[in-house]
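Worked example 2:
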Amino acid sequence: MNLCTGFEQASGGSRRQFLNRFGSGLGGIALADLVNPARADTLPAAPHHAPRAKRIIYLFQSGGPSQIDLFDHKPMLNKMHGQELPDSVRKGQRLTGMSGNQSSLPIAGSPFAFSRHGESGAWLSDLLPHTAKVADDLCFVKSMYTEAINHGPAITYLQTGSQIPGRPSFGAWLDYGMGSANDNLPTFVVLVTRNKGGQPLISRLWGSGFLPSRHQGVRFRSGADPVLYLKNPTGVDDPSRRMLLDRLQEMHEVQFAEIPDPEIETRIAHYELAYRMQSAVPEVTDLSDEPAHILDLYGPDVKTPGSFAANCLMARRLAERGVRYIQLFHQGWDQHGSLPGGIRKQCRETDQASAALIKDLKQRGLLEDTLVVWGGEFGRTNYCQGKLTQNNFGRDHHPRCFTMWIAGGGIRPGTSYGQTDDFSYNLVDGGVHVHDLNATLMHLFGIDHERLTFKYQGRRFRLTDVHGHVVRPILA
């Protein structure tokens, strides 16, 4: 008697039913291994060492802010304004297709005045009067660099550690490694400035890649429905919703018993979190309980839903409630032309609110364990893209050196780290690669970036790929 015949006699089932069930069982085992290949692995216990930070607010300035006009004071450029970029500076390095075919690369000095601020003496442009007032709380990393020269790969690189789409974002890695610090809100929340033009932002920038989908970011929108489809449908009350979720969970548990796909468990968890968020999200997104002096601190735009200022205040409220990773995106820094007018507008929209967030966190005792990061995907060239006129010019993408600032969470305040040459074109000292930045931020959360890995398609992946060093001089 063969196995199939024995099954038919014992159960009264057909050979086809047995093979279907047997095949489904093997398929379920294979599927579980494919979708969650790390199930057999033991995730290294995080934190790996004493953490300095509990949460991060990442103020991402999409498009590439000009370091030359904001942070990296270079008088030489003003002395040589209009002259050709020397070959000894360029050193034959590649240019983008947008300026690589120009017959001339005239140097464009910054039209904005620079001065020193605070006890640290940090150089800042007069475009940033509010940031200047908190200069002693900030660490300016003036020696950032990247290999990516175009927006899509460069933004993806900073957010996921790879120029190629498909990898988990920083927030997803952090959620995977550390888990949630609250019960009623997502661990990873994304806020995008409303009605801003510029380079498109794609949801994969806050996606979970090959990690389980429960680790992906949740976008909060401005308006009546911060999270889409969170409210009960018309005619469905809370008790009915609770009963529906209970029955749905029972069905998912039956399904999971037959096919142990971890995404089934993720789906159950998402439904339950959404149910709890029905009361938590309206409370955290309602700014009406903020006192007048706090609203004034963030500036007049804070009363405009979806503005950068409103999102900065929202970020503080989310941080207070245990959200671990809060990602803000503000577009519009891609100034290939009309830079003087464009960058003034961008700074009016971001300067006061960025500084207010630092002050607000500090006065509440939150800055000491909250990381705040400000910066874009690369910098801008010292030469003009297009025609240089007396009052107008543009700057092309420049990946070889740019500036970001970091505050709080174990970062050494009142510090300027790294140095560029007199032309803000090449690094002279203290280069900080994208992977170095991410390794350092992970370190402040108590995570060894080399140990936080996930096995996928036969290889152990990590946020920093096979690179990255902790930048210890900027640590407090």
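The two ends are 74 Å apart (CA to CA). Residues 1-35 form one domain.
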